[in-house]
Amino acid sequence: MDPLTWTGPLGQFLDPVFYALAAVFLIAVVIQIVMSIAAGGTRVVTNPDGTLSTAGGAYDLSASATRWSGLALLLVVLAYIVLGVFGGPGATGIVGGMSQQLIPVWIALIATFALSITFKRKLGLYGKLFDSTVGMIGFALVMFWVYAGAMAGLFDWITTHESLSQVSGMKNKVPGTPMRGAEEGEYAWYLLGGDNLARDVFSRLFKGAWVVVQIAPLATLFAFMVGITLGLPAGYYGGRLDTFLSFLANLILAFPVILLFYLLVTPEIVATGIPNYMATVLFVFPLIFVGVLLNSRYYTQPSFRTPLLIVVLGLMGWIYLSLISDGGSKVAVLPEFLDLFDIDPGILVVFVSVVFVNAPTVFRIVRGLALDIKTRDYVAAAQTRGEGPWYIMLWEILPNARGPLIVDFCLRIGYTTILLGTLGFFGLGLESESPDWGTTINAGRRLLSVYPHAAIAPAVSLLTLVLGLNLLADGLREESLKD
């Protein structure tokens, strides 16, 4: 069986078009940047309706060239993917093989965009995201990795081989290398080559995406629960409470982040049980947040509030105890038959570290927003009505701070993704066999000058996910400012 090229037989026709369009696009972008900097590159005029627009010139020509060449480049990329989906490796080589494996992801993305665009006027800020080109691109990149990670990690719909399986003769093989003696029903190629232990890079790439998709958003969400629960009263009440909580936040922020990570995930610190005790404290904040939220909302309806709190907090308490309880750790509060799930100790340590590092920054953002919003008229009106402080904080101040918080949430997931990659790269927290992107980059960097594929593939994946989160945040910020 012959090795695969990147674009296969169709590449003879599509590749020259792709390279030409890419060159035109880059030149147009450079010219547009230069013209925007140069004085007099474009003239701004005021339209009859009061809006501003450019009045022709070289800048407009370069902007049009950028827009149309970029669109044409996108169409060529879509041609690679579509032809690959129907033709597989035989039509467009490695690109076709990957496109065919990712068919469930393409279907999920198309369905998500079709439904979202159809009902966007009924979906609030999320629906408005589809009025922003930048936001849609970012959302597509993020959801690609969310769907790909979930489908690879939960269902094995995408992966071609086991992420830990080693195949004789496939060590450090280049992308598209065929397997010798592949059995019937076994995928015949290593699409992105083999790593230094003869494992399939393609399969490990998407298994690693599942690790990131699980940890980064959840850890960021927990950090927000901590930051919001402490930041709102600090900003609303002020005084000694604000001084004390701000001092604690500044104390944590005074440590270099990477050094703090090193301290929390080293085996000596883990052996003392400190991460487990930290998890016990940090993971209780969602219970506090939800309990106070529901109590403040339904305080005047005790017949409904009490059973609601019992059910919701009972379920959340069970999940909380299952999260922190581990028979082999310092914290074992649930018997095994009541423990809903076991978290890998390495993942728990990384999770706690991320929450602990991010929570003070979220606290400062929420505190600043609360200090500003508590002076608004609608807060004074709620106080005049006799509403309680927590009702005002959670149902008046917090909803009106959602725009900046949503944007920061997206950006912070990107920061968390980078931190996870950093920890994996240094071999801290997660197991050495873990397919997470940081560990995979570290394993491939030793042979980077000879076999770059094993390190470049996860590095590009990390880049695209973080880029997607940044673009998504830009789109959300752009649309939230229009409200």
From TrEMBL:
InterPro entries hit by this protein: BP-dependent_transpt_permease, MetI-like, MetI-like_sf
Cellular component GO terms, alphabetical: plasma membrane
Keywords tagged on the record: Cell membrane, Membrane, Transmembrane, Transmembrane helix, Transport
Membrane-protein topology: Multi-pass membrane protein
Cited PROSITE patterns: ABC_TM1
Ranges of residues in domain ABC transmembrane type-1: 209-473
Places the protein is found: Cell membrane
Record carries keyword Transmembrane helix: yes
GO BP term, pick one: transmembrane transport
Transmembrane segments: 17-39, 71-91, 103-121, 133-155, 209-232, 244-265, 277-294, 306-325, 345-366, 409-430, 450-473
Domain of life of the organism encoding this protein: Bacteria
Classification via PANTHER family: OLIGOPEPTIDE TRANSPORT SYSTEM PERMEASE PROTEIN APPC, PEPTIDE ABC TRANSPORTER PERMEASE PROTEIN
Family statement drawn from the similarity comment of this UniProt entry: Belongs to the binding-protein-dependent transport system permease family.
Record's protein name: Peptide ABC transporter permease
Gene source species: Tateyamaria omphalii
